[in-house]
Write a structure and sequence with these properties.
alpha/beta; five-stranded mixed β-sheet; four-stranded mixed β-sheet; 10 helices; 14 strands; 33% helix; globular
């Protein structure tokens, strides 16, 4: 057992709001208190660490995570800093020059402050990507830009709600092409993405991730693989929630902690799919409604009955 004394910091704890020192035994907190009181422990510890005013807190919990998607974003095409259409297309082109086939997965674009006041067209993405299958999710992850090659792999999207021939897909059309895009992710890529996301979380002081799975997010195989990985390898704990259908039956079959998470009632404001009482000012829609009041009621009752 290794015993360590940390002194000279600010320890966040309801047990002692004014604590500045802490003693750990391996991975357990054994004592906390003031620097003065810590003098009694100095002779009994293996190591003393000077915190120099640093803040010590319990590990954080991220209560809304899609772990595999997060890992793929961290290692893939990050479009969050693109200031406009041309810059996004330049990033796509540069990435596709380096990519070795397969579906191009990108994330994070936000057109709301772009000077062009529009999104790239499907034809522009086709040219920038040299005809590759491209899936680019918006910052809110409730819509995407899709290339012709990707839409060709998911032709059902053309007849579904939210399809736009211009390439900005929403609602069910988006769910369909997203599923097609993520089918290209191999088991090896999946594990690597999950490990990357957990490592990034740990580096930020996050000790627990709430995985919000569902059939339109990642699929049951991804969910099961993530829970298995977290049980076998060190890193942040994974608490799995599964959102599918009315009631907890699907969640129970998958070993989820609860039938919750991304069980969509509606969408997101940026994608114009959040459900409003009046139409959006810049689009003739009130958004999307995926569940009725009766379905929500029945879901809560069924989950309550199951505890």
């Amino acid at each position: 057992m290794t015993t360590t004394l940390y002194v000279g910091g600010h320890v966040y704890s309801t047990a002692d709001p004014f604590a500045t020192a802490i003693v750990t035994e391996d991975d357990h907190v054994a004592w906390l208190g003031s620097d003065g009181a810590a003098l009694a422990h100095r002779a009994d510890v293996d190591e003393i660490v000077e915190l120099d005013g640093a803040l010590v807190t319990p590990a954080f919990v991220d209560a809304h995570v899609h772990t595999t998607s997060t890992g793929l974003t961290l290692t893939g095409l990050d479009l969050s800093a693109a200031p406009g259409v041309d810059e996004l297309l330049d990033q796509v082109e540069a990435y596709c020059r380096q990519a070795r086939g397969g579906v191009i997965l990108g994330h994070g674009w936000d057109e709301s402050a772009w000077p062009e006041q529009r999104v790239p067209t499907r034809q522009e993405i086709d040219r920038a990507s040299y005809g590759s299958a491209v899936y680019l999710s918006r910052i809110d992850v409730h819509s995407c830009l899709a290339s012709s090659a990707l839409i060709a792999v998911a032709p059902d999207a053309k007849q579904q709600t939210g399809f736009d021939d211009n390439g900005w897909l929403k609602q069910q059309a988006h769910h369909t092409v997203r599923a097609a895009a993520f089918e290209s992710v191999t088991a090896g890529q999946q594990r690597a993405a999950q490990r990357t996301a957990r490592q990034e979380a740990a580096s930020l002081g996050i000790g627990m991730l709430h995985e919000l799975g569902g059939p339109d997010i990642s699929g049951p195989d991804d969910f099961i693989a993530l829970l298995k990985l977290a049980a076998e390898e060190p890193g942040p704990e994974i608490v799995g929630y599964w959102g599918e259908g009315v009631g907890p039956s699907a969640a129970l079959k998958l070993g989820a902690r609860g039938a919750a998470g991304d069980l969509f009632i509606d969408g997101a404001i940026g994608s114009r799919t959040a459900l409003l009482r009046e139409p959006y000012r810049d689009e003739a829609t009130v958004g999307a409604q995926y569940l009725t009041v009766a379905e929500i009621r029945d879901h809560i009752i069924a989950c309550s009955v199951e505890g």
